[in-house]
Specification:
Helix content is 47%, strand content 21%. With 704 residues, it is of the alpha+beta class. The strands form 6 sheets. Strands 18-3-20-19 form a 4-stranded antiparallel beta sheet.
Length: 704
């Protein structure tokens, strides 16, 4: 009701905005349609088109499958959109590869995935017994009656078969690739030596932290040299930077007063209502919640009113403000209740009960439960009897193996009749209780000391912005965007009006999160539109409770990031490279006088050991792969340096190598390398390589 009321309040503004949007759409189409080749392919993979209509069909199927588990958030919906398209791209790439190597899945092979001795794991997961084992009879029955199922179920089965076939194809392909892996004996020997040959050395190191940044000058020539040497590290997809300003729609003082007035007008009727729960559900922005609340669970404003001031059942307090809403609260019930309870049970389910696979009738289940209770009551001194009977008769697998013990549970977490029995009876009490799951033979085994608890009915009225407030905020945003058509004007206006400018750098076409904005895809799509140029200012984006105006400040095309981006990102590395040159010259100036390097320059004289080709870190000097490579390539007695590393300049001397013993065979290395390769295959390395080599035109930002 609350959502409908909000729509009704702002219907006039919505109609105006929709009308403006339709007009803009018609005018845009009028002026742009002539001579324009509209793009209807959401992607093109190596010249093979993926029409948007095909994507739409598959996307809806995936959405419907996920909706079965509840409503989806905008983030979850967007994730499904992406996974759908990614799956279709993968299918195009891999089917081409399957054809090239000549693999397929025959009808007999597919049949064997269902009816063979070892069915596919997806089939087993779909047709399980309560104990988790495969129920072949259930699967066969399903297939025999497939034509009698609703159309949606038949479509889902076809999709399931298709997905299973794709999985089998991928498994065959991966197995083919894994089977092709071979390590020659000489290569295995080399792997073994690299892994087990260790080196130690004495080093003199002058850390770059001893050289102040202010003493180093980085020139354009230095930036260009670094760029040419390292640009391969900065390959990127297309990126764009935006700056933006928010015009948030916040309730005005008049809106707050109106909300308070509405709540006050309901107080008398709320207090006199014979059915306060129905009254709340009909008039509140939040439905009634029957949870029992202790002192720590109620809002601080009402704690004393509920628990300390002697107010009884039926008392109404408020209005009071809490969480951007004005509230009334009525005391429905007051009790001393335990926070935590413990019980054991024997569940006897029957045909038609919730989650039941039993075939006995409800009457038979009740008779069985009553019979078990009589047995227990006749043997009160047999402390093990309850556990024995639970293990033998209970249909609750989660507690059956523990003798029916449910362990501690919080008040209110169990189904109401079960919870009430445990709460309202002393420890040691046994009885039979019916719930939607069947009949429970219950034994109350423990509970914490009772504490004051209240059951409260909250009548909540959210403080929302009126149509007038929306219109005023929209007018402010519209004035801003009308008067500021370019980036310079955009910046000047923000400063003059005291607005807060925000930025979103390095945004990709698939960006979903922008700080302060929920579901910003329309802004991303505008930024990546081929007609949007650097310096352009957007029209107004109408987001939930805010209006947004953005400016495009930078475009980084696909490929190598440009010099200015690389230089900014790698500023620390470029400075260190210059410091490396300085450090090397300082060490050279000392000749072979190591004590001078230590005393005058602040260098360190130390030793490193157990260095192998697999090492990346050089003692406490951090990642120094080049220095490690230099050390391992030296001869004993040789001295190298000074040479610049990542964090320091080094002189390396007195290198010694510890050779490993020659093993009788290299089976361990073979297993290790084969396992590493197989893990890469299973981790998707093959597909990633094929995808990187494919020519993919991705138009998703045009459509969603």
């Amino acid at each position: 009701m609350a959502a409908i009321e909000k729509i009704r309040r702002h219907s006039g503004l919505l109609i105006a905005i929709i009308g403006l949007a339709l007009l803009a759409f018609v005018l845009q189409d009028l002026f742009q349609s002539q001579g324009r080749n509209r793009e209807y392919n959401i992607a093109v993979v190596d010249g093979e088109k993926i029409p948007y209509q095909d994507f739409e069909v598959q996307k809806e199927k995936n959405l419907n499958n996920r909706r079965g588990s509840g409503a989806l958030t905008s983030a979850e919906t967007y994730s499904i959109y992406n996974s759908t398209l990614d799956g279709m791209v993968k299918e195009h790439i891999m089917n081409k590869e399957y054809d090239a190597v000549g693999i397929n899945v025959s009808s007999d092979e597919l049949y064997d995935q269902f009816m063979g001795e070892t069915p596919h794991e997806w089939v087993v997961q779909s047709f399980r017994n309560p104990d988790g084992s495969f129920n072949r009879e259930m699967m066969e029955y399903y297939l025999q009656n497939l034509n009698d199922l609703p159309a949606d179920a038949r479509v889902q089965w076809v999709d399931f078969e298709r997905a299973l076939k794709e999985n089998v194809l991928e498994t065959k392909f991966n197995n083919l690739v894994k089977a092709s892996y071979f390590v020659p004996a000489k290569l295995a020997e080399k792997y073994y030596q690299n892994k087990n040959e260790k080196a130690s050395a004495d080093i003199i190191a002058l850390r770059y932290t001893t050289i102040p940044d202010s003493t180093v000058t980085v020139t354009d020539k230095d930036n260009k040299a670094f760029y040419e040497e390292n640009k391969y590290r900065y390959e990127t997809d297309e990126r764009r930077d935006i700056e933006y300003v928010l015009f948030e729609v916040k309730p005005s003082l008049e809106d707050r007063q109106e909300a308070l007035k509405n709540v006050q007008s309901l107080k008398a009727d709320f207090a006199s209502s014979d059915n306060p729960i129905s009254f709340v559900n009909a008039n509140s922005d939040q439905r009634y919640d029957s949870t029992w609340l202790g002192r720590k669970e109620v809002p601080q404003q009402i704690e004393k009113t509920v628990f300390d001031n002697g107010n009884g059942v039926g008392f109404v307090f408020g209005p009071y403000e809490d969480q951007e809403a004005f509230n009334l609260v009525r005391i429905i019930d007051l009790q001393e209740r335990s926070d935590s309870l413990r019980a054991s049970h024997i569940l006897i389910s029957y045909e038609g009960a919730m989650r039941s696979t039993d075939s006995i009738t409800k009457e038979q289940a009740q008779a069985k439960a009553d019979s078990l209770l009589n047995v227990l009551k006749k043997n009160p001194k047999n402390e093990d009897l309850f556990a024995e009977l639970a293990g033998q008769f209970s249909t609750d697998p989660s507690s059956k193996e523990k003798g029916g013990d449910l362990d501690w549970f919080t008040d209110g977490t169990m189904v109401a009749p079960f919870n009430d029995f445990v709460m309202n009876n002393p420890v040691g009490t046994m009885g039979v209780v019916e719930t939607p799951f069947g009949f429970h033979v219950i034994k109350v085994t423990d509970k914490t000391a009772p504490q004051p608890k209240a059951r409260l009915a909250f009548l909540k009225h959210e403080i929302t912005s009126s149509t007038k407030t929306y219109q005023n905020t929209f007018a402010e945003a519209n004035k801003f965007v009308t008067e500021n058509k370019n980036y310079d004007q955009f910046n000047i206006a923000i400063e003059e009006q005291g607005l807060t400018k925000r930025s979103m750098p390095r945004m990709s076409a698939s960006t979903y999160q922008i700080s302060g904005i929920e579901n910003p895809r329309e802004i991303v799509r505008w930024a990546f539109n081929k007609d949007t140029k650097v310096g352009d200012v957007s029209s107004i984006f109408d987001m939930d409770n805010m209006f947004v105006v953005a400016a495009l400040t930078s475009i980084v095309p696909e490929g190598y990031a440009p010099l200015n981006v690389v230089a900014e990102q790698a500023k620390y590395q470029i400075i260190n490279k210059k410091k490396g040159e300085v450090a090397v010259e300082k060490m050279k100036a000392c000749g072979n006088d190591e004590s001078r390097m230590v005393n005058e320059l602040g260098a360190e004289s130390t030793s490193v050991s157990d260095i192998s080709i697999d090492s990346r870190v050089l003692s406490n000097f951090g990642v120094e792969s080049d220095i490690i490579g230099t050390m391992l390539g030296m001869k004993e007695g040789e001295q190298v340096g000074p040479v610049a590393g990542n964090s320091s300049a080094f002189i390396i001397k007195n290198v010694k190598f510890t050779k490993p013993e020659t093993p009788s065979d290299y089976s361990d290395i073979l297993r290790e390398k084969t396992s590493q390769f197989n893990n890469k295959v299973l981790g998707g390395s093959i597909y990633n390589a094929l995808k990187n080599n494919a020519k993919i035109e991705d138009n998703r930002a045009t459509f969603y």
